[in-house]
């Protein structure tokens, strides 16, 4: 007989069950600890189980676009709003049109209502505008107009700052500010007069002072901006809401923005880059600096525009070397620039929290709504299902589970113990992960999601049954329990993996091609199918290996579910081998026991 090759585990090897059990135990402890540390000890419930908030949005006609409110734009708006508030599609927010110009958004209880209300109606009209002037948000005194000056605590360099810069000290006259505005608006400064010839100038000096020329249209616009800027009070909610609204991209404007707990105000030049030029944006943590930033990727045309505007601003002094990121008329960031930013990628850093960075990246990434909306009403809605219906459903589920356990006990006897504790481990993992996902990605458990979890219980039980039946088949062939457990595993493993792959593939396809509540069903089904693989590999198989070493199971106790007599096991195989003297005078046969390895 050839010796087994070194380094190769022989058939029937026991493996290391203790290591696998330790891994799954650590995972369970870590998930449970995370659940308590985040104070999310229960899964979030969907609106059909817990109620929530209903927001009604009304579409508004834009000037010059009387036909903008149509079915196509409304459906587009529904899709964008749903992606904003629904994340992966599992937070169970419901978004649907009502009538010609209304959208209803139902948000489950437990969602940040303030944040959701900001997300659902925000049009996210984004522009990058050069900064012409900046001051404190309160209105200026009549005798002096604030003018920007370099500040040691101004905005950071090229990458940008997450919050508007530091208010400037009023140190320049209205004339110097008007000169800056006029230059930015491509016109001579407001105080400039036509340049006469040298001879005409000398004659004029000998006679009388030249009259002040009438201001041009651009000069009048600059003066009007100065007046608006001086009178603007960004601490007043009504004025703040009106500032910058309706300004055309090609026009200069005034705007408000918040830095920490204080408001500031800006005079901004014509837009150099639009939000449609941003290809992708997201809030991420910078591993080197350990702070939250917003990364932006521009389209090809947007990259050229951004390189041009940053190249122009880099040659100027503070604050004219800053550009303001204006979102729906409000300044959300005013980074300074020290060089042209080329390559189509940029980041905004400084002052962001995780929430503010992700919110900004979320709105910019999902794009602008095709329509403007006003909030018509906000109401609290009760659960679509009453407490009695939910209680009745839970009772029905418990009865079904008890019947399954009774069947396992009757048919598998001692093996039912392994199946039950495996189901318990699967339930713990599922519960803790769902609770943490409620905090992490806004996952909400609704009735379809519960149905997905119940279906997955059947998938998990089926995996146990496949393995148990393979073991019983090996015992029927005459093997003892310990080699039977190990020899049955490879064949059972293949069957389990194929079955779970098919279930997961079906869940993935369902999640991709559907929307709304059906996505919750698909998400839960896919999640629990993956957990089935984890539980069977890291718990059921190792625990079966350990129990096979106990006398109760290895001896084939009648209540173990592995009794050879009850299973109809075959006796050890016997065959005859003929031996002789080689003389041809006769032969003697001796029975030889042959057992399969």
UniProtKB/TrEMBL annotation:
Keywords: Cell membrane, Membrane, Protein transport, Translocation, Transmembrane, Transmembrane helix, Transport. PROSITE patterns: SSD. InterPro entries: SecD (IPR005791), SecD/SecF_arch_bac (IPR022813), SecD/SecF_CS (IPR022646), SecD_1st (IPR048631), SecD_SecF_C (IPR048634), SecD_SecF_C_bact (IPR055344), SecDF_P1_head (IPR054384), SSD (IPR000731). Residues 415-546 form the SSD domain. Pfam families: Sec_GG, SecD_1st, SecD_SecF_C, SecDF_P1_head. The chain crosses the membrane at residues 20-37, 392-410, 417-437, 443-468, 496-515, 521-539. Residues 138-218, 563-597 are annotated as: Disordered. It is a multi-pass membrane protein. It is found in: Cell membrane. Residues 138-199 have a biased composition (Low complexity). PANTHER family: PROTEIN TRANSLOCASE SUBUNIT SECD, PROTEIN-EXPORT MEMBRANE PROTEIN SEC. Forms a complex with SecF. Part of the essential Sec protein translocation apparatus which comprises SecA, SecYEG and auxiliary proteins SecDF. Other proteins may also be involved. Part of the Sec protein translocase complex. Interacts with the SecYEG preprotein conducting channel. SecDF uses the proton motive force (PMF) to complete protein translocation after the ATP-dependent function of SecA. Belongs to the SecD/SecF family. SecD subfamily. This is Protein translocase subunit SecD. The lineage of its organism: Bacteria, Bacillati, Actinomycetota, Actinomycetes, Kitasatosporales.
């Amino acid at each position: 007989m050839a010796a087994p090759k070194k380094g190769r585990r022989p058939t029937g090897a026991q493996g290391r069950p203790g290591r696998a059990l330790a891994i799954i135990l650590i995972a369970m402890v870590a998930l449970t600890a995370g659940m308590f540390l985040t104070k999310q000890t229960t899964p979030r419930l969907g609106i059909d189980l817990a109620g929530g908030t209903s927001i009604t949005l009304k579409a508004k006609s834009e000037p010059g676009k009387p036909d903008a409110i149509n079915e196509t734009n409304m459906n587009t708006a529904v899709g964008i709003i749903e992606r904003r508030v629904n994340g992966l599609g599992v937070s169970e927010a419901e978004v649907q049109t009502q009538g010609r110009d209304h959208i209803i958004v139902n948000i489950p209880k437990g969602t940040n209502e303030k944040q959701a209300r900001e997300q659902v109606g925000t049009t996210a009209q984004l522009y990058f505008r050069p900064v012409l002037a900046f001051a404190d948000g309160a209105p200026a005194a009549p005798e002096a107009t604030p003018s920007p000056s370099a500040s040691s605590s101004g905005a950071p360099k090229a990458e940008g700052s997450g919050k508007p810069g530091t208010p400037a000290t009023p140190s320049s006259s209205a004339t110097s500010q008007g000169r800056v505005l006029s230059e930015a608006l491509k016109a001579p400064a407001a105080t400039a007069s036509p340049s006469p010839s040298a001879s005409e100038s000398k004659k004029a000096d000998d006679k009388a002072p030249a009259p002040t020329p009438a201001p041009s249209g651009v000069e009048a616009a600059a003066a009007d901006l100065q007046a608006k800027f001086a009178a603007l009070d960004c601490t007043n909610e009504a004025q703040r809401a009106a500032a910058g609204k309706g300004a055309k991209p090609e026009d200069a404007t005034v705007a408000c923005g918040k830095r920490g707990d204080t408001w500031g105000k800006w005079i901004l030049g014509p837009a150099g880059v639009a939000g449609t030029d941003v290809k992708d944006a997201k809030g991420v943590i910078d591993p080197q600096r350990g702070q939250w930033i917003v990364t932006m990727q521009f389209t090809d045309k947007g990259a050229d525009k951004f390189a041009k505007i940053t190249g122009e601003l880099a040659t100027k002094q503070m604050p004219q070397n800053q550009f303001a990121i204006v979102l729906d008329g409000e300044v959300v960031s005013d980074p300074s620039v020290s060089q042209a930013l080329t390559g189509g990628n940029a980041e905004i850093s400084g002052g962001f929290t995780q929430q503010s960075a992700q919110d900004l990246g979320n709105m910019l990434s999902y794009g602008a709504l095709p329509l403007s909306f006003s909030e018509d009403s906000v109401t609290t809605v009760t659960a679509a299902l009453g407490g009695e219906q939910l209680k009745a459903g839970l009772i029905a589920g418990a009865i079904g589970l008890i019947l399954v356990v009774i069947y396992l006990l009757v048919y598998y006897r001692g093996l039912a113990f392994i199946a039950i504790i495996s189901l318990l481990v699967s339930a713990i993992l599922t519960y803790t992960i769902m609770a943490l996902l409620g905090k992490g990605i806004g996952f909400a458990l609704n009735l379809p999601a519960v149905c997905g979890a119940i279906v997955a219980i059947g998938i998990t039980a089926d995996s146990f049954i496949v393995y148990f039946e393979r073991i019983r088949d090996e015992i029927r062939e005459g093997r003892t329990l310990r080699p039977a457990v190990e020899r049955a595993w490879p064949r059972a493993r293949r069957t389990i993996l194929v079955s779970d792959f098919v279930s997961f593939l079906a869940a993935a396809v369902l999640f991709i091609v559907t929307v709304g509540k059906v996505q919750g069903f698909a998400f839960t089904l896919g999640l629990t199918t993956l957990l089935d693989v984890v539980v069977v590999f890291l718990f059921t198989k190792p625990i079966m290996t350990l129990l096979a070493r106990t006398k109760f199971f290895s001896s084939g106790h009648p209540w173990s579910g592995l009794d050879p007599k009850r299973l109809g096991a075959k006796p050890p195989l016997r065959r005859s081998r003929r031996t002789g003297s080689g003389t041809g005078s006769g032969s003697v046969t001796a029975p030889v026991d042959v057992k399969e390895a």
